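[Discussion] Sanity-checking designs against the backbone

I'm trying to build intuition for which residues belong where. Below is a structure token string of 210 positions. I'd appreciate it if someone posts a full sequence so I can compare it with mine line by line.
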């Protein structure tokens, strides 16, 4: 069973639905609803830290969950969750040079792990005003995805099965979102039906970032 920490975000249940379409069983807890020791009793196979408003320090138990479970179960952070992972391992999160809400961008990547089977670049949907500062990235983390402008769109811990993505894989405008989520889900030991992995067709010119 996956555990998802909900950072009071309107996209949380889109993410839950996207995992559900891949066959995942999920338990959802708001970031002030449960303490990390109680999560131990659930014996999650993986943990997802959701998007949300605000900063990583305002994300309730999210950072504590990353600290407690990193290296024990696979962890995926999305948007704010990605930023929480960055801060836990010593990176800095800063104001973005451009604020993108509901915009799409071509995202390039290294082709491994989450991005296995995903073309580079692919179209990803972005809703964020903060980014991980590339000049203050922890040596424990590797950049896995980026924009042409050099903005960090994905990170991976070099030793633990912990990854973050700044974009929203659950968005209908993210063309290979189901493949990305399935790649994470498989790392938790789950089987993913092949029929669920059809890439989404791009939608013409809906808020493309320029």
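Best answer:
Here's mine. Compare freely.
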């Amino acid at each position: 069973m996956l555990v998802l920490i909900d950072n009071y975000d309107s996209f949380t249940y889109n993410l839950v639905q996207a995992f559900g379409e891949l066959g995942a069983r999920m338990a959802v807890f708001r970031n002030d609803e449960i303490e990390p020791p109680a999560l131990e009793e659930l014996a999650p196979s993986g943990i997802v830290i959701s998007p949300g408003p605000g900063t990583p320090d305002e994300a309730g138990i999210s950072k504590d969950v990353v600290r407690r479970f990193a290296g024990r179960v696979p962890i995926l952070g999305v948007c704010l969750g990605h930023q929480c992972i960055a801060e836990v391992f010593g990176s800095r999160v800063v104001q973005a040079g451009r604020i993108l809400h509901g915009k799409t961008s071509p995202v390039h990547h290294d082709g491994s792990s989450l991005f296995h089977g995903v073309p580079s670049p692919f179209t990803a949907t972005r809703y964020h005003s903060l980014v991980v500062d590339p000049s203050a990235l922890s040596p424990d983390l590797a950049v896995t995805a980026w924009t042409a402008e050099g903005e960090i769109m994905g990170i991976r811990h070099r030793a633990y099965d912990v990854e973050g993505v700044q974009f929203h894989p659950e968005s209908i405008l993210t063309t290979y979102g189901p493949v990305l989520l399935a790649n994470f889900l498989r790392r938790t030991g789950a089987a993913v039906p092949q029929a669920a992995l059809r890439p989404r067709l791009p939608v013409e010119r809906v808020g493309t970032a320029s």
